[in-house]
DNA sequence: GTAAAATGTTAGAATAGACTAACAAAATTT
DNA sequence: AAATTTTGTTAGTCTATTCTAACATTTTAC
């Protein structure tokens, strides 16, 4: 049995591993908003449950069992987000918080029904891949907008931040997944970008925003 | 702030108060499957939070605040059950367990959206009233089938047990809410009833079943 | 290649929620 | 009304999850 708390640790480990490759206790505790010793003792506990490989002073790793467990929680999270947007009419900026809670519901049937009603989606409303029933996730390698050049024309494929604050910022600029973006200029001083898309022309996006936007050619 | 555990105590207090008028610690602990001292100390805690009136050796009562809080949890539970049945295609026997978890989700918006999508229903799939946004519940006084007589023709309005086991039993007999029941005979020995409805004739229901069926004339 | 800084670990304490054992009060029986 | 049974309370323990303070190791800087 994995507690709600343990589930949150596993999820954090998986997403930090994605971003960084390796995970250390400092990053984990910062990500979860807890103190380092708390994270540390939980790692020992998860190691006993064979969900984490823990060796003193070494980076943390999820075991296969841990990866699968974490993947299945993320699956529930993303199916929920998709359901909330597609079937209940929420905006993509509203669903992260709610999904954060619903992902801990213990009912296979509930999430299978969602999956079925949604027609077995592969991506959530923020463009993130939905893991399969074995917790396996296709890790698509998009580029951040930051890495593009003047003149490039790309499509917005995903965002790496699902906070309401960030997504409201994008809403205000009518910037949606799938949008075709043309890069007009890059300010060398602060790396801010001037782009054009849909009805909007000459929108300026700071580097902080650009690095959260994943694009495809 | 009310914890998930506290919410479950409040819900138990409200439903026991409905059944019995007064609530004592023994019934409460049995209902929740915990030991008496555990319930007792939680009652003191809820009394400090002004949710329960607690006096040594006296029956337990919810305060107005406690009733409202409990009513709002039941509202979330029943809206969820209705949503699961009406919008997601679950059977009425599948939804209690799932709703038991979803009722603890903290998001006004989530339940308001359900309510809206459902068209502001007044009853859940088991015929129980859905409390309003102030946690107030209309307490409709149905009769149990047990109290009817031979020759009576009544309609099944609600069931007082939402367990999968009981509802599967009714499913197997195609006994649904709204069904028009005619009482053909009552066995004086064990109070079992022979009834006819819809396509079914001469179904025999034990007193144990009959007392869980609420009917209107 | 030490010294300083960053990171990780251990030990001990707090809170929530559950338990058992022992005791106290109230209700019921005879 | 005394004895018995049921019900309620108190005290102390346990586990999960968190914390702070102190200490240890590793990494980085000079």
Structure characterization notes:
Two copies of one chain form a homodimer. Chain A starts with a helix and ends with a strand. The mean pLDDT of chain A is 95. In chain A, helix 1 packs across helix 4, helix 2 crosses helix 3 and helix 4 packs across helix 5. With 217 residues, chain A is of the alpha+beta class. In chain A, the strands form two sheets. A six-stranded antiparallel beta sheet of chain A has the order 3-8-4-5-6-7. In chain A, strands 1-2 form a two-stranded antiparallel ribbon. Chain A contains eight helices and eight strands; from the N terminus they run αααββαααββαβββαβ. In chain A, a hairpin with a 6-residue loop joins strand 5 (180-186) and strand 6 (193-197). Chain A folds into three domains: 4-62, Winged helix-like DNA-binding domain superfamily/Winged helix DNA-binding domain (Arc Repressor Mutant, subunit A); 72-139, Winged helix-like DNA-binding domain superfamily/Winged helix DNA-binding domain (Arc Repressor Mutant, subunit A, Orthogonal Bundle), CATH 1.10.10; 143-216, SH3 type barrels (Roll). The structure holds a DNA duplex (30 and 30 nucleotides).
């Amino acid at each position: 049995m994995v507690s709600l708390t343990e589930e949150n640790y596993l999820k954090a480990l998986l997403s930090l591993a994605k971003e960084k490759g390796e995970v250390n206790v400092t990053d984990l505790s910062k990500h979860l908003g807890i103190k380092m010793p708390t994270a540390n003792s939980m790692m020992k506990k998860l190691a006993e449950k064979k969900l984490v490989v823990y060796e003193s002073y070494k980076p943390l790793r999820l075991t296969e069992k841990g990866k699968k467990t974490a993947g299945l929680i993320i699956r529930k999270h993303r199916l929920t987000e998709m359901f909330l947007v597609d079937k209940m009419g929420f905006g993509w900026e509203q669903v992260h918080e709610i999904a954060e809670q619903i992902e801990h519901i213990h009912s296979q049937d509930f999430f299978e029904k969602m999956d079925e009603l949604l027609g077995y989606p592969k991506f959530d409303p923020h463009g993130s891949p939905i893991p399969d029933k074995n917790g396996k996730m296709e890790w698509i390698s998009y580029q951040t907008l930051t890495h593009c050049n003047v003149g490039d024309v790309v499509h917005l494929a995903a965002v790496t931040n699902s906070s309401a604050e960030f997504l409201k910022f994008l809403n205000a600029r009518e910037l949606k997944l799938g949008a075709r973006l043309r890069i007009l200029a890059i300010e060398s001083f602060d790396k801010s970008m001037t782009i054009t898309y849909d009805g909007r022309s000459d929108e300026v996006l700071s580097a902080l925003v650009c690095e959260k936007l994943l694009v495809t050619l």
